[in-house]
Amino acid sequence: MNNLPKNINGYTQHQSVTDPLGPRKYFDKTETDVLLLPDLHKVLAANRSKKEKSLANEACNLSPAVNKDTRQTHIVLIHLHNPYYLKFSLAQARISNPNARIHLIGDESNNVYDFIEHHDISQYAQSALEFAKHYKHLSITPFYSRLISFQRWFILNEFVKANNIDRFLYLDSDVMAYCDVAVEFEKFSRFDFTLSQSACPHDIFWNNMQALNAFCKFLMDVYTGHDPEIYEKLLKTYEHFFRRKANGGVCDMTLFGHFRQIGNFKISDVDVLIDNTTYDHNINASKNDNVEFQMEDDIKKIDWIDNCPYGTTLTGEKIKFNILHCQGGAKKYMETFYRGKKSDDELLAIELLNKGWENIKNGNMQQAMDFLDKATPLCPFLPNLNYLKAIIYGQTGQLHLAKAACEAE
Known about the structure:
It is built from 13 helices and 17 strands. The protein is an alpha/beta fold. It has three domains: 37-269, Alpha-Beta Complex (Spore Coat Polysaccharide Biosynthesis Protein SpsA, Chain A), CATH 3.90.550; 277-337, no CATH class; 344-408, Serine Threonine Protein Phosphatase 5, Tetratricopeptide repeat (Alpha Horseshoe), CATH 1.25.40. A five-stranded mixed beta sheet has the order 3-2-1-4-7, sandwiched between helices. It has a four-stranded mixed beta sheet with strand order 9-16-15-14, with no helix packed on it. Strand 14 (302-305) and strand 15 (308-312) form a beta hairpin. 39% of the residues are buried.
C-alpha cells in the first residue's frame, strides 16, 4: 500500500471506492488504544520546525436545517501506532462516506493509508502537553490510558482551529460506521454536540467549535484549581471507586457529565431511537438507551441487510445501527464487520477455519490443527482462529499453549 504524502492540503473529494484496503495487509497486532505522553514528547521533539497555522475559529450556524447542508463532511480519528483494527475503522468510514474528508491524527507508523488524510499529531499537541502538567490521576486504571482520554480533546481543538473546520464527526478507533454522515448531521443540527448515554464520547457530532473550546477550558480550569467545586466532586468519585476496589475512576466521561450539567450548551444523545435507527453504545451490552437487544456470543446479535448492521429487540423489532462500537475485546470482530470485499486469502482462511471447527466437533484434533495451521499465514488475525487452537491445545493437555492462544485471541 502506498504511503501518503506528509501533507495533503489540496484534498477535496475522494472517488467512490469498492474496497479502500485493496489487497489486505496485516500490521503489528499491538493493542494500543492510548496516546502515551512520552510518545507525544518524542514526536514533538522531532518536529521543532512547526509552521504557524491559522487559529480562525468560527462557530457553526445552529439554525434548524431545512435543506441538506452542503458543507464539506469531516470525520476525525486520533491514534498513535498502527494496531490491526485501525485500518478497518478507517476503511469502513470511507466505504460509507466516499466523498467525506477522513482525517487520522497520528504518527509515522500509521501514515500508510492512501484513502484518508494523515496529520502529524505533534503539530497539534501543545495544549495537550500543557494539560498533562496539571493532570491528577484519580483512577484505578493505568495512568496514560486515562490521561489520553483528556488530551485528545485538546488535540482536536487545536486541529479544527488550524484547519478552519466548523463541524465534524469524531470517532474512536474501535468504531465502525455504516451511515452517510452528511445526512446524519441533519438529525443533530440543533445541538452543539452529541454524546452517548449522557456522557460517553466514542462518537460525537461536533456542531459548535465554541463548545469544544469551552470544554477544553473547563478541563483546564478543573485541574488547575480554578473550579474547586467540580474538583471536589472528582475526589468523591475517586474515593467511591477506591473504597470498593473497583476498576475505574475519573475519566473524560466524568467531566463530560459535569460539563453537561452546567447547561451552557445544547447536547443530544445519539443512542436514542430516531427513524428506527440508532447508534450502538457498546456492542458488549444488550441495552441501548431504553431498548434491549438480543445477544449472541456475548455481543449484540447482528444481522446484515444491504450491508448494514441490524439488531433485534427482545420484542422482535429490527433496528438499524449507524455505528457499531467494538469496545474492549470486541475489537476482534471489526474485520468480520468490515463490509469491503474480502481478499482471496481471507476467503480461503475462512473456509479452512470452518473445516477446522468441523473436525474439532468430530474429535479429529490433529486434522483440525492442520487446517488452522494452513489458515494462519493467510489471515493471522482471523476472528476465533486462536480460540479454536486453544480448544485443541486444551483437549490434548497442552495447557500452557492453550493459555497463550487465548491471550493471543
